[in-house]
Amino acid sequence: MRYLPLTERDRAEMLGAVGVDSIEALFTDVPDAARLDEPVDLPTAKGEIEVERLISRMAARNVAAGSVPFFVGGGLYRHHIPAAVDHLIQRGEFLTSYTPYQPEVSQGTLQYLFEFQTQVALLTGMEVANASLYDGATACAEAAMMANRVTGRRKAVLSGGVHPHYREVCETYARFVGFELLAQDPAPGGGENLAGLVDHDTSCVVVQNPDFYGEARDFSELARICHDAGALLVIVVTEILSLGAIRPPGEMGADIVAAEGQSLGNALNFGGPHVGLFATRDKFVRQMPGRLVGQTVDVAGRRGWVLTLSTREQHIRRDKATSNICTNSGLCALAFAIHLALLGEAGLRRLARLNHAAAVALAERLGRIPGVNLVNRTLFNEFVLQLPRPAAEIVEALAVKGVLAGIPVSRFYPDRKELANLLLVAATEMVITEDMDRLEQGLREILS
Amino acid sequence: MSDWSRAASAHPAEDLALSVETLSGNRGLQIEEKLIFEQDSWGHCGVDLPEPAPFRSRLGGLDRQGAIGLPGLSEPQVVRHFTRLSQKNYAIDSGLYPLGSCTMKHNPRLNEKLARLPGLADIHPLQPISTVPGALELIDTLAHWLKTLTGMPAIALSPAAGAHGELCGIMSIRAALEARGDRRSRVLVPESAHGTNPATAAACGYTVDQIPANVGGRVDRAALEAKLGTDVAALMLTNPNTCGLFENEILDIAAAVHATGAFFYCDGANFNAIVGRVRPADLGIDCMHLNLHKTFSTPHGGGGPGSGPVALGASLAPYAPLPWLVHGEEGLELIEHRTGPAERALGRLKGFHGQMGMFVRALAYMMSHGADGLRQVAEDAVLNANYLRACLQGDLSGPFPGYCMHEVLFDDRFLKDTGVTTLDFAKALIDEGYHPMTMYFPLIVHGALLIEPTETESKASLDQFVTVVKALASAARSGDTARFHAAPIRTPRRRLDETAAARNPVLRWRPEPLRQHAAE
Lengths: 448, 520
Description:
Structural class of chain A: alpha/beta
Shape of chain A: globular
Helix content of chain A: 25-40%
Distance between the termini of chain A: 60 Å
Number of strands of chain A: 13
Oligomer: heterodimer
Largest sheet of chain A: 7 strands, mixed
CATH topology of the largest domain in chain B: Aspartate Aminotransferase, domain 2
CATH superfamily of the largest domain in chain A: Type I PLP-dependent aspartate aminotransferase-like (Major domain)
Largest sheet of chain B: 7 strands, mixed
CATH class of the largest domain in chain A: Alpha Beta
Helix content of chain B: 25-40%
CATH topology of the largest domain in chain A: Aspartate Aminotransferase, domain 2
Number of strands of chain B: 14
Strand order of the largest sheet of chain A: 1-7-6-5-4-2-3
CATH class of the largest domain in chain B: Alpha Beta
Shape of chain B: globular
CATH architecture of the largest domain in chain A: 3-Layer(aba) Sandwich
Order of helices and strands of chain A: HHHHHEHEHEEHEHEEEEHHEEHEEH
Number of domains of chain A: 2
Strand content of chain B: 5-15%
Number of domains of chain B: 2
């Protein structure tokens, strides 16, 4: 077996050194009844050629986004990833290292995480960010739990504009962790009254910008209302690229930002792995979940980095930890950091403009189709269309024509008839005019 | 001058190594690298993008004003920056990485290649299910392998890491208890457990009750049984445990736990020791997470991303989190809501469907090894650890008698009266070109040194490690302590002041004027 360096001769010698006759002697602590004498009923070993063939066959059965006109978003976006990103993250020193618990031999990981933390703080307009969490949805749930710790309250209000998966993750955590979650009805186009729900028992209000339906919203007034009531404002961002164009959460008065960083450096990957971003104010840093990298000096006085404030964490505090999280999303955070370093300020802003321009153009074209209405007043790179018929069947029909048109909102809310005709459509820099032509033409044909 | 650097001057060779200054500040392959924010590269861009034609903004006046403050670098600058950073890291690719309980095995590159196939990497979890039958097939195949290896009827794939899997397991246990109207308040956790176990139980609203270890390094069964009662929801046990020992009374423990109506959760972090040789279901386990980034070789990536599927017994399977993949009348079906068979499912624990990229890698790993090869993995992992144990037991001190499983535990008695601590010993290993073993864990052993070589180390590699460890132990005993106290000296940085980092946290770069302002 190509991954196992021991030879039969090595094994025999080593068993001799250990002082046993056979490997079985090392498994005698396993109760007889539980010891398998034969391999389990699964295929036997295969070479690279065969494994590659089998898995490639599965891959070939899927419609890759790059092979069709593609307009699916809903919290994950298909962006260009510069070739250098994937090359660099596959360097073995990054790919095959562990959590940087031994800082003297982990300065590479620690320094890029420090850079990542700075990038995330700058992008979100916040004071401090951690070294990443699993994904945006779990970051959102962690934000609500952190708000509970900061305020000593246990009631969170969740906007109907928050991504339905994020909402469902919050509901799961709320049920088992034990806090009240006032999740509002889905609100395409806005129009919900969150301010009226804030009282002196509210730990936080969780909103999303742009919201799940693509609407860019100003939460400055809501921030003021939250703060007057002693509550925190959590702003979720599922399209981090939007912060290259839209006023950041920090400038709207957010206390915590929970975001998905996939758009920078990370492929769609059928939903994972991605990278949760988490940022807050300096004064709350000791209530933050997840790893943090801090600057310090070595015994020779040279600047260096270490994992810090670990007294918040499970390996030190055990049942008193701020969160049970151990892993972060290191390599995805690295991809994010490299992509953003390549873009720089000018590139990020231009990429954001390209996305916005593509979505505005597409929204205008599709909104002119008879029977189709654009629901949004504002948008960044995603929007909702009201169709004359259920969106799910139209998406399927377009898929047959080789166009992946977007996401029917009914996929998240199958029981809500009023949402059945809504279609969520995203356009990024990867969409070309021909793709828009195919979508528009297909939609016109199906609706005519 | 600190104590450490004073200690360094007791060793002339080290003084030389430290005192030879270069003109650039760099030393051979070790290049000092500034932060990207300090590279004076504002306004550059490493990605050529067209400017869009003029269009009417629809941001509703929410345009971002002012500079974000991000530096821009050209591609060669970025590639050089991150390449230089990579050279400051130790990695499995560069050497033995004997971190106990972390299973730092080789990460096959075929897995990386396959995870990047467009048909797997460039697909969206919310595109029509009819366009991703191969993705469902791959997930179902992975589930079949994991169910067969664990003997469990169901597997929840969405948890993003081991600790997330623990959360999933304890939540499903609580859901099952609540469904039978049984409110319980305590979770039992051995003292030797990973910190995530008590943190998870506490996060789910349980009081954590610690179980001591017996003199053999295993759970004290009498103490455990004394703590069992009808208010206990679950026992969380790691097996093999963090002392590297198989819990040989596990069947009796499982029976005792079940007799009180509680569930038996197993932390599967150490599954590498028994994969293909023991099925957790045969041990009476109700629920166990698997770390795909340990046993199944998905890369640790400097601390993630991981993947922590949870194998569930029949009593817990109805409470698996959404989404579910089931075999329906028309083939594989993805259930995303609490309907049909998933009526009692936990809600979502994560966005979308789980860590697909890790599923691909883990499946490629399992297919490569096959049922026979996976069994060999466990055998070689256990043999390698026992070989180290046999070679080192005369020089180091082992707290527990008998053979070990995939990792071998030593305590610091062999360093008694030498003036060298476990930390010093570990740092001295760094100067010898090794990543240290896990230090000071498990907590039940004084000054613990936990060594897990994994099955992907050759005998020659182990022999060289043994030679170095023995020589260091001998150096410590002979009073050559300066090298330990100064260590490491051959690294990009020497010991770092972690106390100062925590006392006055600097968690991001700030431009100079702002930094001064913040200090005022």
